[in-house]
Amino acid sequence: MLVSAKEMLEKAKAGHYAVGQFNINNLEWTKSILSVAQEMNSPVILGVSEGAGKYMTGYKTVVGMVKGMIEEMNITVPVALHLDHGSYDGCMKCIEAGFSSVMFDGSHYPIEENIAKTKELVAICKEKGLSLEAEVGSIGGEEDGVVGAGECADPNECKAIADLGVTMLAAGIGNIHGKYPENWKGLSFETLDAVQQQTGEMPLVLHGGTGIPEDMIKKAINLGVAKINVNTECQLSFAEATRKYIEEGKDLQGKGFDPRKLLAPGAEAIKATVREKIELFGSANRA
Ligand SMILES: [Zn+2]
Fold it and tell me: What is the pLDDT of residues 172-210, one digit of tens each?
């Protein structure tokens, strides 16, 4: 069964740990993440970007696959299926398809418009029992080949959005999607602290978890981050292990070309990354 992310994140914030959101791209990703969450007795959030949703042929396919796996794999830890960086229309489609959580990314709108659209979604999500993530201050990273620096959110704008009744809030604190550049200045703990003081109990979300040093992750959790998004890191682990398998010529030995064999090292590598993150975030045995 899929659950909203509300309860797991409120517990995480109170218990000073964070729940990982691991983005999925296909069956191997989903299977690897679910099996590690179960093995470590950790709550987990499966993130789906609009692009990944399209890749998997649509949100209904995603819901069917995830629900089926939870049942067939006897997954008993809390699992939320969450739309990552959704548009307003994307949120509506996921709500209809049976997701248990959505993120509305209105950070590129003027704050008034972000508030108006978030407000509408708060009402719909409340009625249907879904959790809702909102974003203030856009998160940097590569988009259409342009690498933007991570913005820092305005703490007063964060409070305005938090007060609408969203479940969790992503605030830009200098974080970036994808790999961090050499000259990255690090997370702005000053901003994070100011946001947390304005938003109180609201679980905060840290996007762009790939490559943030461990001490910064721990400090962010201490300052109220209760959800950390990991996407690129699993992709890099998968690619590295798959490359190794092929470079060693294993696909040419026996039935090494069988997709179940060819994709196995990558799937194991995703597991290792997820295990490492759950350990670091402190959510093991918190299911
Ligand atoms: Zn993000």
Answer: 999 988 888 888 889 999 999 999 999 999 999 999 888
Closest CA to 103 of 238, 196, 231: 231
The SS3 call for residue 68 is: helix
CA of 206 to the centre of ligand 1 (A): 8
Active site residue 89: no
- 208 C-alpha to ligand 1 centroid (Å): 6
Q: Decide: residue 64, CB within 10 A, 0-12 exposed, 13-18 middle, 19+ buried.
A: middle
Position 39 pLDDT exceeds 70: yes
CA of 204 to the centre of ligand 1 (A): 13
Q: Using CA atoms, how far apart are residues 127 and 113, in angstroms rounded to an integer?
A: 22
Q: How is domain 6-281 classified at the CATH fold level? A: TIM Barrel (3.20.20)
pTM of the model: 0.95
